[in-house]
């Protein structure tokens, strides 16, 4: 699945009178295709998370286009955009966002509600993902009973339940030690290796070696000459 963003601009306004402009995105263009893991690095506040939210159809840009397999996400009705996102995009966030009163199996199956696909087949896939991520012994545990690394693996399994074509990851290793970070990154690399598309944003330099292409974002910009790595 091909993700292409073209000329994205997004500003936030600060101060009591909302006259202070912060340009989170200032003309960003980027493409990630089948089998690619593309990383965007940079310090906090440079616009990385805004880029990810806009790319995933969660935050309307001020200017620019986002194409998901040729469909302009912000040129279709809101409901259609929700369905495209639920069916084609998996999200992984640093804070996990697991539902505290649901167990591992139930948390992994949550995205199937958005596509009206909750079924025995979906539960079977959820159990397979839980096993793949070595969480079988935790399948009926609530998030409070999981380690930090286990919570992130649950979040990754949840992102994959609808068999998306693209993963968008925001600081996926930010709360993890080296061993757990390597585990999560290997799973993302495997997803790309199987033909999926991964766009991740991070300040973690450990991720660069897994990327086919890496870029450094600076003050809302993504200069072509700031490409860090290519394989």
Written description of the protein model:
By secondary structure, this protein is an alpha/beta fold. The protein has one domain: P-loop containing nucleotide triphosphate hydrolases (Rossmann fold). The protein has 7 helices and 10 strands. The strands form 2 sheets. The protein has a 6-stranded mixed sheet, with helices on both faces. The C terminus is likely disordered.
What would a concise description of this structure say?
With 231 residues, the chain is α/β, with parallel strands linked by helices. It has helices spanning 48-55, 78-88, 104-109, 111-114, 120-132, 148-160, 178-193, and strands at 3-14, 20-32, 37-41, 63-68, 71-72, 89-93, 166-170, 197-202, 213-216, 227-230. Helices cover 31% and strands 27% of the residues.
- Average pLDDT confidence is 89
- General form: globular
Order of helices and strands: EEEHEEHEHHHHEHEEE
Supply the helix-strand structural class. Answer: alpha/beta
So what's the oligomer here?
single chain
Tell me the domain tally: 1
Provide the CATH superfamily.
P-loop containing nucleotide triphosphate hydrolases
Radius of gyration: 18 Å
Distance between the termini: 19 Å
Helix content: 25-40%
Number of distinct beta strands: 10
Helices and strands in order, then pairings?
Elements: E1 3-14, E2 20-32, E3 37-41, H1 48-55, E4 63-68, E5 71-72, H2 78-88, E6 89-93, H3 104-109, H4 111-114, H5 120-132, H6 148-160, E7 166-170, H7 178-193, E8 197-202, E9 213-216, E10 227-230
Parallel strand pairs: 3-8, 3-9, 6-7, 7-8
Antiparallel strand pairs: 1-2, 1-4, 4-5, 9-10
